[in-house]
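Kindly go through the entry underneath: sequence plus fold tokens. Please state briefly how this chain folds according to its tokens.
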Amino acid sequence: MNEPNPNRDALVRALRRLEREAESLRRALNRAEERLYGFRETVRELLRGAETGAGDDFSPPRSRRRQRCDAVELLRLAAAAGVSKLEIKEDIDGAALVRVEGGREFALPPTLTGLLLALVSNTSSSADDLVGWKTHTELARLLGRRMHKTYKKQALINLVWRLRVLMAVGGVNPFLVQTDPRRGVRFALKRKSAAPQEKPPLAEARSEESWRAPRRD
């Protein structure tokens, strides 16, 4: 029978407290992310008014909370239609530079690159013209096969949140990463059209058979 160890017990309590604090911080950052979108859209609206000489007709803006909700809803609606082109330029270490619809590139580390590739893999059908949804179980399988690791649901949720943050920082609508409590997660990429392309985008909707881990020499 193990004897009581005050030092070990104190360490366990401290680590549990840090775990709770980390979770609180993650939730706070998630809320701050939505506030940032709302603030940015408010500034853009005021700037457009100033540039077009609409200052004489200026009226006080709506409440900040309402503006944030409206901004987030607009982003979600814009993402619902999906995108036709997604380019992923992988490095040998698994990191990548990503470009959406010809916009500016932004960088992703290896794990988030793997997550994005898993999300756009065409492994299931959907009712619209976008790639199919991935359950957390399927996403864990796809990402785990690539990264040679095991992922639990909470870890995947955190990775999805990180992917959205880096997309937003890169000037891309983060709600292109769509989530649904029942269906799971997907990236709003349109499935490959029937018409062949001479030079298709690097990351079109791909079948699971064509989805490969990065080559390592």
Q: What stands out?
A: The chain has two domains: 10-51+63-80, 82-210. Residues 49 and 191 are 39 Å apart (CA to CA). Confidence is low (pLDDT under 50) at residues 193-217.
